[in-house]
Amino acid sequence: MIIKSIVIIAFILIIISLGSALFHLVNPKTEVQSQKTVKALTIRIALSILLFIFVFIAVATGLFKPQGLGAKIHMQQPVQIP
Q: Which of 5, 18, 60, 82 is 20–30 Å from 24 (CA)?
């Protein structure tokens, strides 16, 4: 449950950072606004990479088990043709 909470919080932070970048992008262009846009997008990219690495490690260590269609396909036994 903690793993899922961390992932949800990371997604929320990514969306907030993206919204902040959009806000600074839409406002009148000044040097400060451009720097804030770049900073917000850099934070979003860093959070996305960290989230990807975290999920990869969690799946590799077994803390987080994938569910859904892809996991069911890999768990099926191959059909043997006589």
A: 5
Structurally, the chain folds into a number of domains equal to 1
Buried b (16+ CB within 10 A) or exposed e, 42-67: ebbeebbeebeebbeebeeeeebeee
Are the C-beta atoms of residues 66 and 59 closer than 8 Å to each other?
Answer: yes
pLDDT digits (tens, 9 = 90+) for 3-24: 889 999 999 999 999 999 999 8
Report field, pTM of the whole predicted structure over 0.70: yes
Summary count for the chain: helices (H), strands (E): 3, 0
Compute and round to an integer the Cα radius of gyration of the chain. Answer: 19
| Residue written as token pair 């606004």 | 33
- Average pLDDT over all residues of the chain: 85
